[in-house]
Recover the amino acids of this structure.
């Protein structure tokens, strides 16, 4: 008889534990649904329009995946501009478009949680793609011009000026 009584006690404990678990799940679901029902309809977190956001928050152009891979790994192309610790070269494109212009900025660029943003004359031109050995970043560049000041920044930090570009042959 003891074994029969012991198994009944065990069954009662299992049923009570299951009932408590179901009650906890139902109450958490009800509280969560109630919190959403209390929110004002159409409520959104206020944000400044893009034009009024600080420069660090403005959209940074992102190349398509194919162009990004070309910028990252294409062999050295014809050099079209130089500057202190940087070189711009023309690399072949796998599409019918004109060749890409890639700017490589030499320096120490450790992997971090945010991208480096490359700026030309204070305007973001793209996200710097670190090289495999982390001693440079690369970015697709619009047509370079002599005297354009290149800089980069990490996140919302201050921009680090690299220097002016000088287009070769001009």
């Amino acid at each position: 008889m003891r074994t029969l009584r012991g198994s009944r006690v065990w069954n009662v404990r299992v049923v009570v534990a299951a009932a408590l678990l179901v009650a906890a799940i139902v109450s958490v679901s009800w509280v969560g649904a109630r919190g959403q029902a209390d929110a004002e309809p159409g409520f959104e977190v206020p944000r400044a329009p893009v034009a009024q956001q600080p420069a660090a928050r403005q959209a940074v152009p992102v190349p398509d995946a194919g162009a990004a891979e070309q910028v990252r790994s294409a062999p050295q192309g014809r050099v079209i501009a130089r500057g202190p610790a940087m070189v711009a070269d023309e690399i072949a494109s796998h599409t019918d478009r004109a060749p890409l212009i890639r700017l490589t900025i030499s320096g120490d660029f450790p992997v971090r949680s945010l991208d480096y943003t490359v700026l030309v004359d204070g305007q973001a031109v793209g996200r710097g793609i670190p090289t495999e050995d982390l001693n440079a970043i690369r970015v697709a560049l619009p047509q370079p011009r002599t005297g354009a000041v290149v800089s980069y920044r990490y996140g919302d930090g201050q921009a680090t000026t690299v220097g002016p570009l000088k287009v070769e042959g001009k």
